[in-house]
Specification:
Layout lengths: L2 H58 L3 H13 L1 H4 L7 H9 L9 E4 L5 H8 L7 E5 L2 H10 L4 E4 L5 H4 L10 E4 L8 H14 L6 E5 L13 E5 L11 E7 L1
Parallel strand pairs: 1-2, 1-4, 2-3, 4-5
Antiparallel strand pairs: 5-7, 6-7
This protein binds S-adenosylmethionine.
S-adenosylmethionine binds next to helix 3, helix 5 and strand 2.
């Protein structure tokens, strides 16, 4: 670019910068005015939004606060949370259906999150005092303690299950229900988890795991272990399948 053209270009930019500087104060003042207005009306607006959310929840049968918590957790730790939304009722019900309330002992839930499967376990007839909820996320733990005060909530890493539950279980468990995103872990860790769970359960008790994947989350051909899959649960986002493992 020739020198005069460059000088004229510089002047043009300077002019635009000056203009922007002048406008900046006006725009800032406008934004401040809007913020002040919003602050004054925040309570009224907040209550209105809350009312609308409650009406929506009642109509659709879901808890949006849980959805929001879940999405936030997924944004922060996508591999740990493993899903963008909590399990739907149909999937939770399918998982809980494999737990026989007549089999004695505690029921261990791994990765309960906001508790949709916990809720289904209660509906299945499991007394809340029998529940041992193992959750990694401290915010979910707080929520679970408030929501299920009779249950035992253990904050920690489910992949170290045996060590984590030392002194917690007083008798063999009646089942383990897992919502962990197993595929984010290597196979040897998934297998170790399964066998640690078997060691904590009474003979023949189920290890229940859901997956969105087409293949089994833990290989189905294992020595002295039977594996059984449910039909795909289409009424879930995304559709999922439940796998049940038992030691023969
Ligand atoms: C896919 S979400 C399932 C949540 C809930 N069970 C449901 O069905 O909506 C996985 C949950 O497992 C928890 N989680 C992931 N890794 C974990 C670990 N190593 N130990 C304990 N909890 C874990 C996450 O914090 C999250 O709550």
């Amino acid at each position: 670019m020739a020198l005069p053209a460059l000088q004229s270009f510089e002047k043009k930019i300077e002019r635009q910068l000056r203009f922007f500087e002048l406008r900046k104060h006006i725009i800032e003042r406008k934004i401040e005015r809007h913020i002040r207005l919003f602050e004054q009306r925040r309570d009224v607006i907040g209550k209105k939004i809350e009312r609308q959310i409650k009406q929506f929840e009642l109509k659709k049968g879901i808890r949006l606060d849980d959805e929001v918590r879940f999405i936030r957790s997924w944004i922060e730790k996508p591999l740990t949370t493993g899903a963008v939304t909590p399990s739907g009722r149909a999937l939770a019900r399918t998982m809980a259906s494999y737990i026989d309330p007549r089999r004695p002992g505690p029921v261990i839930e791994l990765g309960p999150g906001t508790g949709p499967v916990t809720e289904a376990l209660l509906a299945q007839g499991i007394d809340p005092s029998r529940l041992v909820l193992v959750e990694f996320d401290p915010i979910f733990c707080r929520l679970l303690r408030a929501r299920y005060p009779a249950a035992t909530v253990v904050q920690g890493d489910a992949y170290g299950l045996k060590r984590l539950l030392i002194g917690v279980l007083r008798q063999p468990a009646a089942g383990v229900v897992s919502g962990l995103p197993l595929f984010t872990k290597p196979l040897h860790m998934r297998l170790r988890l399964l066998f640690e769970a078997f060691a904590l359960m009474s003979p023949g008790a189920p290890f229940v795991q859901f997956t969105y994947n087409a293949v089994a989350p833990i290989p189905k051909r294992l020595d002295r272990v039977s594996a059984q899959a449910s039909e795909r649960v289409w009424m879930n986002i995304p559709p999922a399948r439940v796998w049940v493992y038992r030691r023969d």
